[in-house]
Amino acid sequence: RRRAGGGGPTPPLPALGAAGMAAEDEAELSLLECRVCFERYGPGGQRRPRNLPCGHVLCRGCVAALGGPEGRRLECPFCRRACGPAETSDCLPLLQLLEVLGPAGGSVPSALGKSGGAAGPAPAGLGLRLSLGGWGSLVNPTGVAACRRSGRLAVAHDGKKRIHVFGLSGACLQRFGERGDAGNDIKYPLDVTVTWDGHVVVTDGGDRSVKAFDFEGRGVLAVREGFCLPWGLDATPESEVILTDAEAGALYRLTADFKRGQLKKCQMIRSQLVSPRGVAVSQTSGAVVVIEHLKAQGPNSSSTRVKIFSAEMDLISQMDSFGLNLVFPSKICTTAVAFDREGRVIVTDVCSQAVICLGKPEEFPVFNPLISHGLSYPIGLTYTANNSLVVLDSGDHSIKIYSST
């Protein structure tokens, strides 16, 4: 089941001559126009840009016209996927871009503070300190988490012992979580987190359960009922667990006394998400960020969306692959997410094989590459107590730890 890596690093943008500038202007004009009526989008009224469920964007007037006078189901004029007018939504990336451009309608590159669409400056000082695992030690790893008290790392993978625990020096301290069908055996781990009170919690896609262990490998709790496909999870400072259910399209908060092995409460806190997988909780503000995997529109296409919620689960901001392409000229497919110590949203991107900072929720999204070389297929992300960045690279079955140099 080894996954193939994404495309190589994005080549540098060539210098733009007169023809290149003309092509850039044409692309910008196309971006800001409805491709049905060819009218320029506006912030309100009939020209307000609307997303169709398929991902294509039309102005509000064209959505109404295609739906007919009775507001019946309409077909996307580009891919022919049917939907109802109520299934459309405001295209926030374009609305934000129009707001930046202002009434005068400045150019896209200048409004974004870029020349020719290049990415913003990368923060300096992150260097690879340690690489752990590798083929034979880890087999198709799927999740990584750090214990914020001890600094130990827990990794979920497809080996005979599903969970490996590494110490600060890189030595493997424990292996537990037998592959099998009995008791607390783990069939197929999808993600892992470590609670503040020192328990390793795993989502098991094999029997659609959530299982908890202490650091000695003793199974303390298994929650097998109520989930369709539990996937991503992260722990709060109160040792609660926030987890996604990819098939149910839901987000849950799980409260338990892990020492006694007692489940107290499992509450759905958000529904109507689209295949949510990766999730992270800010340890300072309590904000929650989720990665949704949207339905592909072709055999080789994929699209993701990053959603940020407040601690009270109010939607703060969201951005999909299309929107991120407005600030970065390469396709982006986010797979893992974390908050750093300052509360910034950090994601992995398997298309550019990179780790990217998208900024704090209130400034989301900025675009600052943190790591752009040396990764094959980054699918896991966490921070240690000393603020080292840990990346799980499924392409070469390793854990890569970066720290300030």
TrEMBL record:
Write the Enzyme Commission number(s) for this entry: 2.3.2.27
Lineage, opening ranks? Eukaryota, Metazoa, Chordata, Craniata, Vertebrata
Stored Pfam families: NHL, zf-RING_5
Q: Which residues form the RING-type domain?
A: 34-80
- Please name the CDD domains in this protein's record: NHL_TRIM32_like, RING-HC_malin
Reaction it catalyzes: S-ubiquitinyl-[E2 ubiquitin-conjugating enzyme]-L-cysteine + [acceptor protein]-L-lysine = [E2 ubiquitin-conjugating enzyme]-L-cysteine + N(6)-ubiquitinyl-[acceptor protein]-L-lysine
Q: What is this protein called in UniProt? A: RING-type E3 ubiquitin transferase
Under Gene Ontology molecular function, one entry of this record is: zinc ion binding
Q: Which InterPro entries match?
A: 6-blade_b-propeller_TolB-like (IPR011042), NHL_repeat (IPR001258), TRIM-NHL_E3_ligases (IPR050952), Znf_RING (IPR001841), Znf_RING/FYVE/PHD (IPR013083), Znf_RING_CS (IPR017907)
User: What is the main EC category here?
Assistant: transferase
PANTHER family in alphabetical order: E3 UBIQUITIN-PROTEIN LIGASE NHLRC1, E3 UBIQUITIN-PROTEIN LIGASE NHLRC1-RELATED
Has the keyword Ligase been applied to this entry?
yes
Repeat positions for NHL: 133-169, 173-216, 373-405
Query: What's an example Gene Ontology biological process for this entry?
Result: protein polyubiquitination
Q: Which Gene3D superfamilies match?
A: TolB, C-terminal domain (2.120.10.30), Zinc/RING finger domain, C3HC4 (zinc finger) (3.30.40.10)
